[in-house]
Amino acid sequence: xxxxxxxxxxxxxxxxxxxxxxxxxxxxxxxxxxxxxxxxxxxxxxxxxxxxxxxxxxxxxxxxxxxxxxxxxxxxxxxxxxxxxxxxxxxxxxxxxxxxxxxxxxxxxxxxxxxxxxxxxxxxxxxxxxxxxxxxxxxxxxxxxxxxxxxxxxxxxxx
Length: 159
Prior knowledge:
Elements: H1 3-18, E1 24-27, E2 32-35, E3 39-46, E4 56-58, E5 61-62, E6 65-69, E7 72-80, E8 87-92, E9 115-118, E10 123-130, E11 134-139, E12 151-157
Parallel strand pairs: 2-6, 3-7, 6-12
Antiparallel strand pairs: 1-2, 3-4, 4-5, 7-10, 8-9, 8-11, 11-12
């Protein structure tokens, strides 16, 4: 990897470890992010499974529960910090426990566009509207990544 790419990756990882948009309330003790606006930009980072916890890093938290209002327009900027394998983020209309976590990879996104994939050391963007209240699960659709901790939950609340 080039020196400037490594520096950019390090700065992005540092920013994501502590920063969060001003329109999101962070509840660290409950590992929860609460979106208060009708649109939000979320930065998500995924570490190498060998180097990190296997978690998604969002708003300075690992795999937080994200609460957003119905109709919220979500823009995801997904950073794959793994130099050897792809990672992704998909939101599905299902809740754990899952009898066989591998079944998740075949499930369609809960909302059009609620799915993103990035190759090693790449960044990708996705956009979707959370159009239905309910409880959803986000996870990495790469084989076996969910089993090592790359998943969390989203609650879409009535407006």
